[in-house]
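Q: Could you write out the predicted structure for this multi-component system? I'm mainly interested in how the pieces pack against one another.
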Amino acid sequence: MGRFVARRLLQMIPVFLGTTFLIFMMVRILPGDPVAAMWGDKAPDPAQLAAFTHKLGLDLPWYEQYFDYMGKLFTGNFGETMAGRQVIDVISEALPVTIRLALMAFAIEIVFGVGIGLLAGLRRGKFADKSTLVFTLILISIPVPVLGYLFQTFFADQLKWVTPTVQDSMNLGQLLLPAVVLGSLSLAYVARLSRTSIVENIRADYIRTATAKGLPRRKIIGTHLLRNSMIPVVTFLGTDLGALMGGAIVTEGIFNVKGVGNALFRAIGQKEGATVVGFVVVLVIVYLVASLIVDLLYAVLDPRIRYA
Amino acid sequence: MTTVIEKAQATDRLVPGTPLLEVRDLHVEFKTKDGIAKAVNGVNYSVSAGETLAVLGESGSGKSVTAQTIMGILDMPPGRITSGEILFRGQDMLKMSNEERRKLRGRKIAMIFQDALSSLNPVLSVGYQLGEMFRVHEGASRKEAKAKAIELMDRVRIPAAKQRVGDYPHQFSGGMRQRIMIAMALALEPDLIIADEPTTALDVTVQAQVMDLLAELQAEYHMGLILITHDLGVVADVADKIAVMYAGRIVETAPVHELYANPAHPYTEGLLRSIPRLDQKGQELYAIQGLPPNLLKVPAGCAFNPRCDKATDLCRSEIPALHQVLDRDGAELAGRKSACHLWKETLHG
């Protein structure tokens, strides 16, 4: 177990180096000169342009830029934005917002996804099951922006329960609506996955044994059925946590949540190499740690899996 | 509130000699896409305390469905009990509420399944699964339950029970897993155990060990045992009486040794002849011709008639009742019945 964790942590190093390098290169090959863009529509003074470019180190060959950046990164220095702000400050401002948003969405998709899936699976072929299949299919088919604007129109403009956009990005109450939108797609997947898994497992021999043992139904479902059925769901949830953290760009945009998605979107637009790579570094770590936790959780859920 | 169990025990004291379990004219059918499959068509049998009844039959003969119906674990739907009674200590279990039946399961009637690997929960330790019996039915604490689980594992002779109590089913061998199934069934010292092909999935040498263990524990606790099997070899040593099933009916019942010595139904005769024997080495193995009937359209008359070389027109038109079997002098042979129009010829011929 310890060795497994150590090996997995070591494996993170090449993954980490690879992703940062790729992102670094991708930002560089984006068309347009980020320094010239600082002047907006006006034509920049060539001397000033050259001076700025030199100051930012953008006149150096790409490999020198890369090693320079990585060198700093390992000392905890994420570099500066072109406006001179510390990237680490930008990240530490946006990350807590996104973590809240992602965890709320995550909680919503687990509670409702598994709940709906369990209900549908236990009532296979009945109304509850069929309506779940239709409902989740609708959720999966609606693009997130459409759902976002629909919710905005209905809950903010019509019912006036909430403001259309988030005023205070750290306020959990205000983040609820974006979290629902963010979690809805995964919720549908979790519900379908749980349903299928429950339907399969409820016919298993060990469920028959549990019944023959005279266990109450609630115990058969809670202890014997759910635990076995959650194994495929946990796989999905693990990869999804990473996706929720990095993939909230659209949702954050619609509701004006000042999180990672928003900041990343702006940074890409402005070709802020250091900022983009900085965020990606954080997201890669989140993703890798989340998948490690999932793998470890497997062994807890299913003792047949042993890590050596 | 007097529980079912107390009531049941009271009945037991009032009427001594009542069989522990009595199945009366049980009919079970399954709804399938192609029609109604009549899986059990009027089964009658009974077991007393300390007695072993072997229910013998091919797959699809209704032996397992009957057992599942007794246990109350039949999938309904598609299954449906159309008529009959299942009396446990004189009380009809089919008239009990779900909760009353649940309390009997595991505590008074326990079941051992065929494939222990799939019948045990793969993600829970065997200690937990054994201890669950005490926690659910007796409200034992975790610690007590674990101690009792170890005790049970010792009782079914699992080596190093104390170290292995936390192990998972896949970490045990097939024979050991089946011992755990037996331990689980024995946990609350039930009055009746139904063993559904308990040794089919095991090696021959292990089969004998497991069967011996089961027989020994049954005698020790004075339990009734219904042993469901398709293997005549398993039955001979442990059973007191045998009920042979075919197409959802009992075709012959008899005390075990009499059945082996002198069957009164052509189907039983065929089964006995198809056992490989060392003294017939070199000869072709006998097999009953044809296949078990499709339960969606059971042949008219005796269900066995298309496969029977003795069949007459009567066999093809009229379903034979389960006759009392008589000896050559016309005296009743105790416990012997046959559902064959030609039982006399079969038995004495």
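A: Regarding packing and overall arrangement: The CA atoms of residues 248 and 261 of chain A lie 5 Å apart.
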